[in-house]
Each structure stands twice: as C-alpha cells, then as structure tokens.
Amino acid sequence: MSDLLNRRLALLGERANLSLLEQCLHGIERECLRVTDDGHLAQTPHPKALGSALTNEQITTDYSESLLEFITPALADPADTLRSLDKIHRFAYSKLGDEYLWSPSMPCPLPEEKDIPIAYYGTSNIGRLKYVYRKGLALRYGKTMQCIAGIHYNFSLPEKLWPLLRQNEAADVSDRDFQSSSYIALIRNFRRYSWLLMYLFGASPALDAGFLRGRPHQLEQLDPDTLYLPYATSLRMSDLGYQSNAQAGLTPCYNDLTSYTDSLRKAVATPYAPYVEVGTHQNGEWVQLNTNILQIENEYYSNIRPKRVTYTGERPIQALMARGIQYVEVRCLDINPFLPMGIDLTESRFLDAFLLYCGLNDSPQLENNECGNATSNFLTVVKEGRKPGLQLQRQGQAVDMQAWAVELLEKIAPLASLLDQSHGGDAHRQALDAQLAKVRDPSLTPSAQVLAAMAEHQESFAQFSLRQSKVHAEFFRAEPLPAQEQTAFEDAARESLVQQTELEQNEVGDFDVFVGSYQASILAISN
C-alpha cells in the first residue's frame, strides 16, 4: 500500500475524524424504458400524472419520450438514497396504467428508427433547446443507441475532508484547488481500475437481435432473436453500444481540471466537417444546436464525469471552472435486471469503498500508453470478462485479470474497514466479500446469471427481460406508497406542470437568439 494512502487512512481513522466518512453524499439516477404489455416500446407521451419532464426534479425523461429517468436527492446514507429511489418507482407504477418499466440496460425490441419518439419538453426556449439537442443526437448517432439505459451513481467526499488532508500534506494550494485536483486524481484511478466494476456489475451479455439494425458485428447468435458474447459482461459499455467518429479524437486529459475543461470547451467550439455538411437547419427547422464536435459538453460520453451543481442558466463547464469539482458521476453501471431498482445496497457499499480507494490512493498522471491501456483493459473486460485465463495490460506487462482483481480487492479492504469503523457494523466488509466471491466464481456475476436464467427458461433476451419487468412491477404494485407520500408526489407532479406553463407563458425573446447566446456562453469563458 502506498505511503500516501497509509497516512490518509491513519488520519481518517483518528477518533476526531472518523465521523467524517458518514458525511459522504450519494445520489442515484436510474434510466428505464416504458414498454407495453407485450414488451415493445411504449409510443405514448410522457404520462402527465408524473408531472413535467422539464421541471419535475425527481422524474424526467432522458433521450426518448419513452425513456424515463428517476433522480434521487443526494443523501448521506446510501440506504436512504435507495429508499428514495424505491418510492419514486412505486409512485411511477401507480401512474403507468398497463405499461411496464423495462428491467435491463439494453433496450426492448425497438420500432423503426423514425418511430422512436424523441423527448418533448414544451414550447419554452429551454424546453425547445433540450428537444433540438436530442434531434442532434438522433442525427449524429441514431435513435437506437440513445435507448440504452444505465445507472448513474453520484458520489462526493465530505467538504470538510479536503482542508484536513491539505493541511496534513502541507499542500501549497487553495482548499478549492486541492479539492478539484483530488477529484481529478480519483478520476484517473477510476480509469485505471474501472474494468473491475464491469466484471463485478456488468449485466448486459446479450441483446435483442434487431438492435443492430443489420449492421456488421462480431456477436454470436444465441437464438433467432438474441445476440450475445459468451464471456461478455457489459455489451452496453462496449464499442458496439456507442461509437462516435467525431468524438474519437477527443480524450479529455485528466491531468488537471483546466486541461479537462479546455478540451471540452474546444470540442463545443470546433466544427466537424460531416456535421457542417448537414447544417443546423433542414427545411427551415432546427436539426442540431451547432455543427461542432459536441453540441454541448454533456454530449461527451465518458465512464465518469467531474460535476458541480449548476445555477439556473449556467452550463456545467462554467460551474466547474468557477467553483471547482463538487462530486463525481459514475456512468458505466449496468442496470441489474434481477433487482427491482437495478441496484442494491451491497453494490452501493462496495462502490463507496472502491471510490474512496480511487480518491485517497496515489494517482500519478496517466502517461500516453497508460491511457490507452486503461481503455483497452476496460473494453477487454466488457467483451470477455469471464473468459478463463483472461489477460490485461499493467505497466507494459500482461497480467492475469483474476489475480489483479483479487489484489485490488485486498487493497480496497482497509477502506471498507474504515467505512465500517465510521458507520458501525460490517456492511462494507460484507459487500467486499460478496465481490471477492464473484472474482473466484464467475458464475456468480450478474452477466453469467442473465445467461443462466435465459438458458434455464429457454427464453430470448426480450422474453427474459419482459418476465423480469413483470416480476418487478408486481413487487412495486403489491405495496403502494402510504397515502401521505403518494399525495406529496402527486402535488410535486402538479406543481411541475404549473411551473412549465408559467415558463412558457412568460417566455421572452426569440429561440434562435436564445440558442445563439447559449452557444456564446461557452466561447466567452476565458482560459
């Protein structure tokens, strides 16, 4: 274990500091498709009873009108975060009629591209901006790719932790800069080790055959309706799930916050020839926000993002540059189709220990070949993670994945113990042991269990997924929310519709001018 990690563990283990780790914050965003009783994409508008997708803080839509997104508040106890997510699911199910929430990450059998509805947010300028952005995504990457769902795990270390570490290490920078550089260091380590999360939590080894729309691929046929790879953990995170030639040259450097924001700023301002050829308008209608590599910074697809809560009208990049990094958003987690919410407390507790390890351990800058290795290790594990004797690259040497995974879990163990010391009990240690069991026995991984369940029931991917969706629907519908909580959700939904109407009625200014000033806002940021 590194000297730095040892010193930090000792400092945080002191009686006066132990309670700090109870103040980490956890938020979850869960995406899921609405589907019909026979497992096809719901073509209905976003249910009005769920409120406005534009202004409801807990229930919105992601890419498609059919792709719901549930958002919890950021809470100190992940058990409370999951309780909050559970309540959102129960409320949603009270308003879904005969529709279901699709259980896995990879989509149900989809209609023709043209029949996948793009999310609509009303007639306000910001609502229209969100809609045109999605039209741009459809144009650039196709609608099918945008129907993949995931779980985003938002995590922050306590604000009081950073000054403590900075003083202890006599770092000659401001608290804010120390905090930002520490989060960037966490992200570098996450890039080094996130292949482990794909092995442990990847749950998309198979997909509906129609998903590829006849494109060439290297997948195998499992049955007439299902494609898969025998050792895959997460086809969702493979190059098959999402590919962008425009973004290929865009690898934001995680050396420091400035180099990261600079690379995104440039991408939002740099024209990309194929998009220029299309233009921003067709037949007088907006089809994309601009003709640059990225329309907005959120278009950059990454496994983890540095984040800060934004003010109204502020762009994510402006918030980061003005006030530094506040938390990280882990974006590579598959939805586990065996869990009603797609994630559980065991996974959350392990993620906390894993992220704490990434954040407190030494994190030298990624040299060029190490950056490439991190990417190729990740892609190897998503396609072949359960393959016996699988080799990854570490410091220019081939290394056995299973041995490296065991070694990493041993290094994370002291972090799990520290969290248990802080919280009482041994829940983090147990979560770690559950992951060790999966490393020793690949049949315990969610990806292996998906294939096993399909084989046992002789089901296609779509049949398995619909069966799980109905099991989960029954779980949520069997126990409705208490009347008081149901009323609170209904009030919030109604209030969000009122807010959207007010926005639309009080809108000032022309949409074209609004888009122009939105684009200019990023160009105006000084270096």
TrEMBL record:
GO biological-process terms attached to the record: glutathione biosynthetic process
One Pfam assignment: Glu_cys_ligase
TM stretches of this protein: none
Catalytic activity: L-cysteine + L-glutamate + ATP = gamma-L-glutamyl-L-cysteine + ADP + phosphate + H(+)
Pathway note: Sulfur metabolism; glutathione biosynthesis; glutathione from L-cysteine and L-glutamate: step 1/2
Signal sequence segment: none
Chain ranges of the Glutamate--cysteine ligase domain: 10-381
Keyword ATP-binding (UniProt): yes
GO molecular function: ATP binding; glutamate-cysteine ligase activity; metal ion binding
Keywords of this entry: ATP-binding, Glutathione biosynthesis, Ligase, Nucleotide-binding
EC number: 6.3.2.2
GO cellular component, one term: cytosol
Record-linked PANTHER family: GLUTAMATE--CYSTEINE LIGASE
Recorded family membership: Belongs to the glutamate--cysteine ligase type 1 family. Type 1 subfamily.
Name of this chain's protein: Glutamate--cysteine ligase
Organism taxonomic ancestry: Bacteria, Pseudomonadati, Pseudomonadota, Gammaproteobacteria, Pseudomonadales
